[in-house]
Specification:
985 residues; Beta-galactosidase, Chain A, domain 5; Immunoglobulin-like; 8-stranded antiparallel sheet; 7-stranded antiparallel sheet; TPR repeat
């Protein structure tokens, strides 16, 4: 992958998997190399008699290889190279294996390392634990990849812990890749009658599509079975489909050539998500396959969602809450697609003819002395004994009573008195077509405040990219200023943005309504949030009062108790802290924050042995709890952590009164290496300065702030309330601190406080020491706040004059295009930086397009014929668009000179896509102009038959454009982030 972009990307309106594709504070990577090179990766290998796994900790803890030893078959797609393409949320992404996606799809840390721990049980079971703090909310996600010695299955144990003090949204999808070809079939349970696109914007029947889907007229292909979505070969375009309803817990895929496949099993009550995605079986999809692998061919993704059944579809994690669940995958052989599965194994039923059936049974444990019974209409048609073993499926082909259908059959596998597997006859009612989504009305068109509240909550919970929830809640309080729910919702947003006084105002108005008749409202959220605001603004006694009131509500009792205990420890009141934290642990023993607080309190009370036992107990349950590891081993335990995680640990410790250890950790973070996750050293020093100031050490605080000025700040993108408060503290100490101003401005701009950010950046860029980053960021802010295109352009000119850079050149050109500057003038500004321009794909595309505009198509053609490109998912067609345009211009020139053969050759060249472009024509792309010209020229040269064939290939565009003429962005479209830097005002 290329180097991270030194400029923060503010793209909260970018649409990604149907939700916001904002990437800040992760550095963005917008380039991948086009030549491979050897690279050694850390890998953890697990193997038993039946399965071999390879886990890659440096790539998000993904499973890279899942190999069925009995069938000699990769049941997960094996990619024999690590070949990133620009698909991920923050840029690089690799295909193959299993990617574990949370709290958003694709995993924000998919190309970042995780901490690992290998746990070995006495029975030989091995679990590889992988854990990280997510780059956005800093929640802790941990997955354990488990292999048992006596089981032919991969078990995944997941623990998602909200270690923050705020409610957070998340989704979880395990993204399993399977190598496909014309004879590979995905299978869902037989009661799946409908599937849906992202956000349910479209549905169709399954497995036979009964309507056009993704622009493809599947019913027209029904004659040859081309309407079946369960076969990869039938799907020509990039396509997702997700199960809308099922009463079964399984799904999977089967390779009919290899007679092998896999099954996924999870409790449907919490794990309803079942999805297939494909790039499509066409040259367009095959081009993406080539971008992602050197020779391992196409794949589909068979994704399994927990607490989610669609994308986007977010659930909630409350402060301190832990959600734990398991998922299971196991290979199957020789039995075909599955009709029933559990973690114990799978049963397949295939009706061969009116009176013949094939039954298959596969198990994950050895089951000697098993009995298999097949029953039809209460009549046993087979009962046999068999020693079932993994990897050697039991199969039977036999006769059926007349009129028996697959749904009528019961297959039962027992071992002694235990039922191992049982597939019961199904009684299904008529399939009900599910709803499809529609964009919500605008606030003024909604009648009730209740609907305004829930519409806003939907937009907020699903991280909607183009519609803010705020206008809905603001409309509600315009109609009814005391609307408590909307006041609390607005307060929550303001609080997360660091607008504490705004949040407090909303909360006090909401509480006045909620307590007007009842002093003890059922919902304690408003009091909890008020307590958090008061604590952040230094009013600790008032904060305790508000939090104590919130604790009257059982939902908020544990979160409030944690915060009260922290405040008590900060003032040295250990008796209150231990009382409150014991109450928390009685109701939420899984809250690692509370366990840590109790251990610290015991230690401070001199009960070091009790504290040690408590920490050891926590680490036995979670060996990658970094706060507990530091408590046990001291700051040396932070040596393997990234700087941001070290700061997370320091924050938890200082909140619980363990300030000396927290300060030592912040010193370590102040020396941490910069990583693709970003730079933290300046922020670590500012955080240390704030803590020293609170301890009364003004001299030490000043030295820490000076240290913040001496370390590099490239890729330092502050985020979160702790960074916000530390930078505000720095500016209170020194209002002219240029670095603190610049860093705080980035945080504020990302949080939607754009006018405040612009004010700070104007102070920064008024100094001769202003960085190109500050100049560029100020240009974005000028555009966003004031719409002053000329002023923004001038700031870009200053930045480029100081230090030419490909992103600066590209963004300035986008701005000039928005300003309707001529192609000649735009090109004249790029020409002095031609080499830099060609270092970026997007800028190269713009450059060559401008060359065509000014009649220099020969130069553009030379570039496109020789330079390799790597497109961004969602940005396909840009390079190809210039390529086709050059062909049309060449044909027009040849035609004007009377050279019809030359014109025909020019068009034929444009129709053929050179491999260095890295993509191919989308099957639904608009080919009217190019193919229409081709057909016309063929007719004029006398080739009527070929002209007729070409006209059959012409199709008008059915694609939705990401940005409409009114400046709005399609509700679900995927688009390049650069399109959104200068949206129409």
């Amino acid at each position: 992958m290329g180097d991270p972009d030194p400029y923060p990307l503010f793209v909260d309106r970018r649409v990604y998997q149907g939700s916001s594709g904002r990437v800040y504070p992760i550095p963005f990577i917008d380039r991948v190399d086009t030549e491979g090179a050897p690279r050694q990766w850390q890998a953890i290998h697990l193997e038993n008699r039946w399965i071999r796994l390879v886990v890659l900790p440096e790539l998000g803890g993904r499973i890279h290889i899942g190999y069925d030893k009995t069938a000699e078959y990769d049941f997960f797609y094996r990619n024999n190279v690590i070949k990133p393409a620009l698909v991920g949320l923050a840029g690089p992404w690799v295909s193959g294996g299993v990617e574990f996606n949370w709290p958003q799809h694709h995993r924000p840390a998919t190309y970042l390392p995780v901490s690992t721990h290998i746990e070995q049980a006495p029975d030989g079971t091995v679990t590889v634990w992988c854990s990280d703090h997510d780059p956005f909310a800093r929640m802790k996600g941990m997955h354990g990849i488990r292999l048992h010695p006596d089981r032919a299955a991969v078990e995944l144990v997941v623990k998602l812990h909200n270690r923050t003090s705020e409610s957070q949204t998340f989704l979880w999808w395990a993204n399993v890749a399977a190598r496909v070809h014309d004879n590979y079939q995905s299978f869902f349970p037989s009661d799946v009658h409908f599937v849906a696109d992202h956000a349910r914007r479209a549905i169709t029947a399954f497995p036979h599509a009964d309507r056009p889907y993704y622009g493809v007229d599947y019913p027209a292909m029904a004659k040859d079975g081309g309407d079946r979505l369960d076969w990869y070969k039938n799907i020509p375009v990039p396509t997702s489909y997700m199960v809308t309803a099922t009463k079964e817990d399984f799904f999977g895929g089967y390779d009919h050539d290899a007679e092998a496949g896999f099954v996924h099993v999870a409790d449907r009550h919490i794990a309803p998500g079942k999805k297939q995605w494909t790039w499509g079986n066409s040259p367009f999809g095959h081009a993406w396959d080539r971008l992602l692998t050197d020779g391992d061919g196409p794949y589909v993704e068979l994704m399994a969602g927990v607490y989610t059944d669609n994308q986007p579809d977010f659930a909630w994690l409350e402060p301190g809450e832990t959600k734990q669940f398991t998922q299971t995958w196991f290979p199957i052989q020789r039995i075909g697609p599955v009709d029933y599965a559990s973690p114990e194994g799978a049963i397949s039923i295939k009706i061969l003819s009116a009176d013949r059936v094939a039954i298959g049974v596969a198990v994950t444990f050895a089951r000697p002395g098993s009995r298999i019974e097949i029953i039809a209409s209460d009549e046993e048609i087979l009962g046999v004994e068999s020693d079932l073993v993994p990897g050697d499926a039991w199969t039977w082909t036999g006769s059926l009573p007349a009129g028996t259908e697959a749904a009528d059959l019961e297959v039962r596998v027992t071992q002694g008195a235990d039922i191992v597997l049982q597939r019961r006859p199904r009684v299904e009612g008529p399939a009900t077509e599910p709803r499809t989504a529609s964009a919500p009305p605008l606030p003024g068109d909604i009648q009730s405040n209740d609907e305004l509240f829930w519409t806003g909550m939907h937009l907020h919970q699903y991280r909607h990219p183009t519609r803010s929830p705020l206008p809905y809640w603001e409309e509600a309080i315009r109609r009814d200023p005391g609307d408590a729910r909307c006041r609390v919702a607005l307060a929550d947003v303001a609080y997360r943005r660091g607008e504490y006084l705004v949040a407090e105002t909303h909360l006090r108005v909401g509480l006045e309504r909620a307590t007007a008749l009842n002093g003890n409202p059922r919902d304690g959220e408003a009091s909890y949030l008020l307590g958090m605001v008061l604590a952040r603004t230094g009013r600790h006694d008032e904060a305790v009062d508000a939090l104590a009131k919130a604790a009257w509500d059982g939902r908020w009792a544990a979160p409030a108790g944690v915060e009260i205990a922290r405040l008590a420890l900060q003032r040295g009141d250990r008796s209150v802290a231990i009382e409150k934290i014991d109450q928390v642990l009685a109701s939420n023993p899984a809250d690692a924050r509370a366990v840590v607080i109790r251990a610290i309190t015991l230690r401070k009370s001199g009960r070091t042995d009790d504290a040690t036992r408590l920490v050891d107990h926590l680490l036995a349950a979670d060996p990658l709890d970094h706060v507990a590891r530091v408590l046990r081993d001291g700051e040396e335990a932070a040596g393997s952590l990234d700087g941001r995680t070290i700061m997370d640990v320091a924050t938890d410790l200082s909140a619980a009164g363990e300030t000396e250890l927290a300060l030592r950790l912040l010193e370590i973070a102040g020396r941490a290496d910069v990583t693709p996750a970003g730079e933290v050293r300046p922020i670590a020093h500012y955080r240390r300065a704030q803590l020293l100031e609170l301890l009364g050490d003004s001299h030490g605080a000043a030295a820490a702030r000076e240290a913040a000025h001496l370390v590099p700040d490239a890729l330092c993108f502050p985020a979160g309330l702790d960074d916000h408060d530390a930078l505000q503290a720095a500016l209170r100490a020194d209002p002219d601190d240029e670095r603190a101003q610049d860093l705080l401005a980035m945080l504020l701009f990302d949080r939607g406080r754009q006018a405040e950010a612009l004010k700070l950046w104007r102070e920064v860029i008024a100094r001769p020491t202003a960085s190109t980053r500050a100049l560029r960021n100020a240009a974005l802010a000028v555009y966003a706040v004031e719409g002053d295109l000329d002023a923004a352009s001038g700031l870009y000119n200053r930045a480029i004059e100081a230090k030419p850079d490909g992103r600066l050149l590209f963004e300035r050109d986008q701005l000039l295009e928005r300003m309707a500057v001529s192609a000649e003038d735009r090109l004249s500004l790029l020409e002095p930086h031609r080499d830099i321009a060609f270092s970026r794909d997007d800028l190269t595309v713009e450059y060559t397009d401008l060359l065509v505009d000014v009649g220099r198509w020969e130069e553009a053609l030379q570039v496109l014929q020789t330079r390799p490109f790597a497109p961004w998912e969602g940005g396909e067609g840009k390079v190809l668009g210039v390529w086709e345009r050059i062909g049309l211009v060449r044909a027009e020139e040849a035609e004007r000179s009377g050279d019809l053969t030359g014109a025909l050759n020019a068009i034929a060249t444009a129709v053929a896509v050179p491999p260095n472009i890295g993509e191919d024509r989308h099957p639904l792309a608009d080919t009217t102009t190019l193919f229409g010209r081709w057909a016309d020229l063929l007719e004029r040269t006398g080739d009527l038959q070929q002209a007729d064939e070409v006209r059959k290939r012409i199709r008008a565009s059915t694609e939705v454009r990401p940005i409409g003429e009114d400046g709005t962005i399609d509700y679900f479209a995927t688009s390049l982030p650069d399109l959104l830097l200068f949206p129409p005002k």
